[in-house]
């Protein structure tokens, strides 16, 4: 008889080779972290796509809300002085 | 503001949201799961992505039939890997679909109850080894033509899943064609077997592109949302034009007496598709509809105790860990 408890959802991050960061590959269901790792190996790295896997239960991720993108990201837009091209230098100055 | 006024302001807001949304897609921007989207966009995507996932899952069954009977180890490992890929493709797609707010359980329930559809091609039987060749060559060939345009569809998770699927799919078609090639270069009985498989799979493969443009109900909306980049008839024609020369290389005959090169169109003319058969199979009266669902539901039910045991084990481990920490 099923107790109707479904396997939770996990997010999978894979480092494709050393020197690169882990990148989000997708998600899967598993009963626990160990099984999530094993399933991630079979689902997302059947062709040597990775050298390292992270799994994290999806419920532990806090995500920003796209509806608040304005107040969250717009303040950076008018701060042109954070970019090197904001500063006027004579052409004779090279490599700066 | 009166209730009337509030209502009309709301309706206007929704309309403007929808306009912005359509404009984003027209600019080739991607839509991500937490973005605002019209309810119809959500529902259409849940329907299409889940049908696609179900097709991958049910698609394992006709080939699973031949894993233990593959004629050599080379063929067996290839077929096993292909079926494993299909399981993987189903899982990528289910994950993409779940980001739209439907649970895996609901998706399975829709498949098992018959509410959700899957590709009709899998309701045909695989009676000889040559069917493994024909499926890889024709069915996967048709699937690739259907899927490549979806790599640039508007919904981000679906597009990303399709990129991965398409990368993996080309081995499927090549291994199928290699099976056909071997049979066609073998004994007369083997070549006959290959021809027989082509005869049975040709027309159902053409039906995989769906009804003719005149009959297709979703085309216009799907084009707008980039769920479709070409019409059913255009894709079908592309498949025929690409496949006929491949049949020539095998020395096989396409089972269509009306098939003829049209110099003017630079394309093949072809015969009438039996749409009655198509609709019969869609409605559940194909040769294998019942058997496929029985196998799928049976496997799910027989696996229930394993899923429950794994969950119970995980909970027990967790409890033990918490106790030890105290």
Automatic annotation (TrEMBL), chain A:
Pfam families: PaaB
Protein name in the entry: Phenylacetate-CoA oxygenase
NCBIfam families membership: PA_CoA_Oxy2
Gene3D superfamilies referenced in this protein's UniProt entry, alphabetically: Phenylacetic acid degradation B
Gene name of this polypeptide: paaB
Taxonomic path: Bacteria, Pseudomonadati, Bacteroidota, Flavobacteriia, Flavobacteriales
Organism: Mangrovimonas yunxiaonensis
From TrEMBL, chain B:
GO biological process: phenylacetate catabolic process
Gene Ontology CC annotations of this record: cytosol
SUPFAM superfamilies, per database record: Ferritin-like
Family matches, as InterPro entries: Aromatic_CoA_ox/epox, Ferritin-like, Ferritin-like_SF, PaaA, PaaA_PaaC
GO MF term list: phenylacetyl-CoA 1,2-epoxidase activity
NCBIfam families: PA_CoA_Oxy1 (TIGR02156)
Protein name: ATPase AAA
Organism: Mangrovimonas yunxiaonensis
Gene: paaA
């Amino acid at each position: 008889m099923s107790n109707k408890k479904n396997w939770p959802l996990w997010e999978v991050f894979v480092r494709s080779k050393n020197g690169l960061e882990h990148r989000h590959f997708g998600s899967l269901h598993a009963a626990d972290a160990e099984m999530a790792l094993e399933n991630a190996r079979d689902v997302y790295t059947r062709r040597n796509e990775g050298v390292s896997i992270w799994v994290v239960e999806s419920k532990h991720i806090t995500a920003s809300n796209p509806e608040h993108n304005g107040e969250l990201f717009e303040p950076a837009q008018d701060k042109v002085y954070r970019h090197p091209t904001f500063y006027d230098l004579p052409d004779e100055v090279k490599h700066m | 503001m009166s209730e009337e006024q509030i209502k009309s302001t709301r309706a206007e807001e929704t309309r403007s949201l929808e306009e912005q949304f359509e404009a984003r897609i027209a600019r080739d921007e991607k839509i991500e799961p937490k973005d605002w989207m019209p309810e119809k966009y959500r529902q259409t995507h849940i329907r299409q992505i889940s049908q696609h996932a179900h097709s991958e899952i049910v698609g394992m069954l006709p080939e699973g039939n031949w894993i233990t009977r593959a004629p050599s180890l080379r063929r067996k490992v290839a077929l096993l890997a292909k079926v494993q890929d299909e399981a993987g493709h189903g899982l990528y797609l289910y994950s993409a679909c779940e980001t739209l707010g439907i649970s895996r359980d609901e998706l399975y329930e829709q498949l098992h109850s018959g509410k959700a559809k899957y590709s009709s091609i899998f309701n045909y039987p695989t009676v000889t080894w040559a069917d493994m060749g024909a499926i890889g060559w024709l069915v996967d060939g048709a699937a690739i033509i259907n899927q490549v345009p979806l790599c640039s569809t508007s919904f981000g998770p679906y597009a990303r899943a399709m990129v991965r699927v398409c990368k993996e799919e080309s081995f499927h078609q090549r291994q199928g064609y290699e099976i056909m090639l071997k049979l066609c270069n073998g004994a007369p009985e083997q070549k006959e077997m290959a021809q027989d498989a082509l005869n049975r799979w040709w027309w159902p493969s053409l039906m995989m592109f769906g009804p003719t443009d005149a009959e297709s109900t979703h085309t216009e909306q799907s084009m707008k949302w980039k769920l479709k980049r070409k019409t059913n008839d255009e894709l079908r024609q592309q498949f025929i034009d690409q496949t006929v020369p491949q049949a020539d290389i095998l020395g096989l005959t396409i089972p269509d007496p009306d098939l003829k090169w049209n110099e003017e169109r630079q394309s093949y003319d072809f015969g009438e598709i039996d749409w009655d058969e198509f609709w019969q199979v869609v409605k559940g009266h194909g040769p294998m509809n019942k058997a496929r669902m029985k196998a799928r539901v049976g496997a799910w039910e027989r696996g229930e105790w394993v899923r429950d045991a794994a969950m119970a084990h995980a909970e027990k481990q967790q409890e033990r860990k918490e106790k030890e920490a105290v």
